[in-house]
Write a structure and sequence with these properties.
Rossmann fold; 2 domains; seven-stranded parallel beta sheet; binds NADP nicotinamide-adenine-dinucleotide phosphate
């Protein structure tokens, strides 16, 4: 299955690092023009530079694997476009819409998280989590879905989490936002019914992103090499994972790129899991 997204424009919110950066890179490698988003012009410019270098390295690997010559620029990948703005605010969204007035693929990846004792989470914190993790995605969906519907093709995704269904007691406010995204996604899929636009959520599991290594080494023997350390961490603290290791951001991105493609035309209104089997359920 060779995914070709050339001619498509995508926006990935919160894509200057972590899972968002992997998704932006994956979509660009498939040929899409991708809007990279973060709160500041500086962080977005630095991310684009990093991703461009990674892509050159990737392309070199592909060319070597294929045994030589590039074939007709097929692997050139799409452009990365700066789309800075704090999308948890109306002004920030307007800024992003100014940079990218039309998109064919919207990946609502932005999400903040942090542990907090349940009874100490105050109203302002509940509101902040809702605004960043849910309202930003709703606002962008409202802005971009009508254009996708008119053009008869579009892809919208919400990056949810295992925490949507296995709500952690130290992150109820985070879990609440991820459960909300499943509802938002299913609802907008109904709004898009029959239009050629698909709307899905992606349930990501524990992933190897920035800061996770420090977190792991706080809980297991510091002398262990990373491979063993993460397996020990999963065995002791995430025993329900069937993968028994952290997921790499690129593994989440692979599913998102597929769902963004014409091949995924019959998947809509779904919550699709890439959680390493962490959620002990047959559905979704
Ligand atoms: N990591 C995991 O194990 C895991 C597991 C399941 C699900 N997820 C979900 O996956 C998504 C990505 O997680 P991650 O761990 O990759 O995130 P991350 O490494 O913390 O990255 C957050 C990104 O969001 C940007 N950002 C933060 N606030 C913003 C705002 N208001 N407006 C625009 N951009 C903003 C940051 O860019 P700047 O600093 O440049 O603004 C950064 O690019 C989240 O929705 C998370 O809930 C993560």
């Amino acid at each position: 299955m060779r995914i070709d997204l050339s001619g498509k424009t995508a926006l990935v919110t919160g894509s200057t690092q972590g899972i968002g950066a992997a998704i932006a890179t994956g979509l660009a490698r498939a040929g899409a023009r991708v809007g990279v988003n973060g709160r500041s012009e500086e962080s977005v410019a630095a991310a684009i530079e990093r991703m461009a270098i990674e892509r050159i390295d990737d392309e070199r690997i592909d060319v070597e694997r294929d045994g030589g010559e590039r074939d007709g620029g097929e692997r050139d990948g799409g452009d990365l476009v700066a789309a800075p703005g704090d999308v948890s605010t109306e002004e920030g969204c307007e800024r992003v819409l100014g940079a990218l007035p039309h998109v064919d693929i919207l990946v609502n990846n932005l999400g903040i998280f942090g542990a907090r004792p349940a009874l100490e989470i105050e109203d302002a914190e509940w509101r902040r989590y809702f605004e960043v993790n849910v309202l930003a995605a709703v606002r962008l969906t409202r802005a971009y879905l009508p254009g996708m519907r008119e053009r008869g093709w579009g892809r919208i995704q919400y990056i949810a989490s295992d925490s949507a269904v296995v709500v952690p007691k130290e992150m109820i406010h985070y879990g609440m936002t991820k459960t909300a995204l499943l509802a938002v996604s299913r609802g907008f899929a109904k709004e898009a019914a029959g239009s050629g636009v698909t709307v899905n959520s992606v349930i990501a599991g524990p992933t190897h992103t920035g800061g996770v290594e420090d977190f792991v080494y706080q809980l297991v023997d510091r002398e262990l090499p990373w491979e063993e350390a993460q397996r020990e961490f999963m065995r002791l603290h995430r025993p329900q994972s069937l993968l028994q290791r952290l997921i790499e951001p690129a593994e989440i991105a692979n599913l998102v790129v597929y769902l963004s493609s014409p091949f995924a035309s019959a998947t809509t209104g779904a919550a699709v899991r890439v959680d390493g089997g962490y959620v002990d359920a047959i559905l979704p």
